[in-house]
Amino acid sequence: MISRHILVVEDEEKIASLLCDYLKEAGFRTSTQNNGNHVISQVKKDSPDLILLDIMLPGKDGMELCRDIRQVSNIPIIMITARVEEVNRLLGLELGADDYICKPFSPREVVARVKAVFRRIHAERQTNNLVVGSISLDDETHRVMVDKQLLNLTPNEFGLLKIMMTHPNRVFSRSELINRVQGYDFEGYDRTIDTHIKNLRKKIAQKLPGQEIISTVYGVGYKFSVSSD
């Protein structure tokens, strides 16, 4: 079995080396990049299965890189940063990151997060394709069509939509969505789920203007529903 390839984008050599050691011990292949200006070309060349992306980099920073990568690929991205301000955390995830880890961190936690992302992706591919109203979701190709128009989603947005489409009209709490999408429960991700839902709503609204597909149930969470008209 071919091991998954992780690209570690980190300009601090000791941190990059430490992450690579732990990832290799967990059975992953690794490569590194320490300059933001060379990341896109390396991604195109090596086709990694996941990127660990530091925000503070020489050249392009992690935020700009995340945005650039999302324009061409849905490859999973876990951002690493020493910035703990909530606005930066949410901005990173709005740009399409799958997860966010703040320094200082435990290398074992990083490995656990990487494994959780891959478990979620594998689980997504095991379920049947879904069709609810004018929205169809194809697990194998990771494609979502809305009224016969392609909807470009990040992996987390895809995971959220799939969970809610599996049970239309069911109300999901934030903590349940966090656990199902991320693969673990983490209190600090309540606002993260709100950000993903906001982005998902915006993208669907562009294809189905005037229809509220994902609604907020005050004090509880969110539900997915499509009119039968």
SSE arrangement:
Blueprint: E1 5-9, H1 13-25, E2 29-33, H2 39-46, E3 50-54, H3 62-70, E4 77-81, H4 86-94, E5 99-102, H5 107-126, E6 130-132, E7 135-138, E8 143-146, E9 149-151, H6 155-166, E10 171-173, H7 174-182, H8 190-207, E11 214-217, E12 221-224
Q: How many β-strand runs?
A: 12
Quickly count the helices: 8
Using only CA atoms, what is the Rg? 18 Å
Our estimate of the beta-strand percent is: 15-25%
Note the gap between the termini. 48 Å
Largest β sheet strand count, sense and barrel closure: 5 strands, parallel
Low-confidence stretches: none
Going by CATH, the homologous superfamily of the largest domain would be: Response regulator
CATH topology of the largest domain: Rossmann fold
